[in-house]
Every structure is written in C-alpha cells, then in structure tokens.
Amino acid sequence: MEGPAPWERLSEEELEDQYSPSRWVIRRGAEEALRTYSHIGDEATKKARATRKSLLHVPYGDGEGEKLDIYFPEGVSEASPFCLFFHGGYWQSGSKDTSAFMVNPLTEQGVTVVVVAYDIAPKGTLDQMVDQVTRSIVFVQKQYPCNEGIYLCGHSAGAHLAAMMLLANWTKHGVTPNLKGFFLLSGIYDLKPIVYTSQNAPLLMTLEDAQRNSPQLLLEAALTRPLDPACHVLVSVGQHDSPEFHRQSKEFYQILRQGGWNASFEEIHDMDHFEIIWNLTQKDYVLTQGQPRGLSSLAPPLAQGVILDQVPRRAPCMELASPSALSLPLPVCVCVSHE
Ligand SMILES: N[C@@H](CC(=O)c1ccccc1NC=O)C(=O)O
C-alpha cells in the first residue's frame, strides 16, 4: 500500500499557496505579474494581427466558443509545420484574443501558428474543454492534411489540455493528426490537488472528474504505448515555479519515459510561471530560438525545416482554391502520394 501523495501532506493554506503561481514570482508583486501577463499577451496579439496574414475566429465546431485563429508565415502557401497553442488561466480565465504570444517569432521561422479558444469555466467543464481541444486538432488536420507536423504547445492549464492529447482516441474522429511534438510549459498533470483549492470554485470538479482528466494518472494506468516513437514531448517548468509545479512536471516526465515516450525535461533558468510564456514573444528566447533546446529541438522536421530554413516536403502537395463549406479562403492541400 502506497503512502499519501506529497500534496496530501500539505495543509490547506500550503496547498493554496503551491497552486497559486502568482505568489511565486520574484521580480514583481502577484497582481502586477498577472497584469503584465495580460498586457504582454494583448500587445503580442495586436501585433500578430496587424503584421501577419491570418484567419481569425475560424469555427472548428458548432459551439459559440469553438473558434481558432490561424497565423501564417510569410510566403508559405502550402505545407508548413503547425504549432497549436492552448492558453492557461486555470481553465477559468484567458482567451485566444490575448494569447498570440509566440506568433511573430514562429511565423518568421516558417511555422503556422494556431491559437485555440475553448469554453472556460463556469461555461465549460474539464471534459468539454478536453473534447474541444481534441476537435480543434482534428479540424486543423482535416483542413491542412499536408501539414509538416502538428506541434501542441500549452501553458499551465493549457499544458494540461495539450497533455491530455497524449491519450486521445482519434479513431472516432476519422483522422489521426500528424502529431510530431508536445511543448508543455509549467503544466498541471494531476488535477486531484486542485479539487482542494479555491481554483476549483468555478470548475466544480469532483475527485472523479479530476481523475478522469489527469494525464498523469491516466498514463500511469495505460497499457498503450506511443503510436509514433518519434513524437517528442518536452516537459518544461520555470525555475521560479512553485515546488508543487516542479514536482508535477518531473513526475509527469518520469511517467512518460516509463511509458516509452520520447520525452525530455527542462527547467527554464530564472523564469517564473508567467515569464516562461511571455518570453515566447522574443525571438532570442531559449524556447523560441533554434538549437539546442528551443521549439526546433522538439523534432527533426522543425529543426531542419524551421531553423535551418530548409522546409522538408513530406509529400507532393497540390493547392485547391476553394476548400470548404465554411467558405473561408483556407489554403488546403491534397497529398497526392505518400512516402
Ligand atoms: N489565480 C492564478 C492565475 C493563474 O494561475 C494563471 C493566470 C494566467 C495564466 C495561467 C495561470 N495559471 C495556470 O493556468 C494565480 O494566482 O496565479
């Protein structure tokens, strides 16, 4: 019989503290950190929308909140790697309209960036958000079947949603996305401690809900192995994230390795929970730059295609002019051969 989990030994106040990321920032006060985070997200999104070719508020489902923004790299008319971003905010705050953090540096390097909205609480439940994220990826794969890899990037609660995709059952959606990498920043992978914090007030998660939506617990119990052994998972945490956030990331990384995943772990030097994401607006940041540890190191296609500027072609593609019933000018390509 195993003993209590480390978080079960914490008092209510300690647990609240550990799961309040803004209390752990070192260069500013908690409120100022949250304000700066919103401000930088806001500015980055305005800049991305003003300077990049984009398709905004594209529906990936029938729900009012089921929309995504697509930002294209300059001059790339057909296939490219796709980075899908899922914002954080404890599943109860944040918006795609203020989360285009990495759009400018990544599109500059030939990556198409998709910023996905999902119904935050209290409108959405965890199960619904996971389903929405799944369908957003299916949508992108169907619209862009010749993508050169889909890379999921999530921050905090968004890293949790991205991590749930390691367990997604794609067969019922009729398409298996070309997932090449996961980029999980300061995430939460075991939701059970959250049930006992004030963060759960709008979420109304029961322990069963938490269990069903915890990638850590699901992977521990899973008998499945990664479909694509080349798909890389980077689990990353800020040096100034709380000890519980560190523990969650390290344990999740270990579970991934035990399950046969091609995973790596990185503590980002001198970054707090918010800096880890707002620095994605910078081209020379460790996570957006090239070698050895940035997005490019996630998988060889990005490393070769994006950073070394030789976008590899998986298969010959043809562009179709008018792709979908959505009557959006989406560039869709059709694979005419497979390797
Ligand atoms: N109330 C939280 C807010 C928070 O955790 C947060 C805010 C913006 C983006 C991500 C966050 N954390 C996890 O999703 C805090 O105390 O920091």
Automatic annotation (TrEMBL):
The keyword Plastid does not apply. Its EC number is 3.5.1.9. Its main location: cytoplasm. It is found in: Cytoplasm, Cytosol; Nucleus. A motif (HGGXW) lies at residues 87-91. Residues 84-273 form the Alpha/beta hydrolase fold-3 domain. Homodimer. The main chain amide nitrogen atoms of the second glycine and its adjacent residue in the HGGXW motif define the oxyanion hole, and stabilize the oxyanion that forms during the nucleophilic attack by the catalytic serine during substrate cleavage. This is Kynurenine formamidase. It comes from Vulpes vulpes. The lineage of its organism: Eukaryota, Metazoa, Chordata, Craniata, Vertebrata.
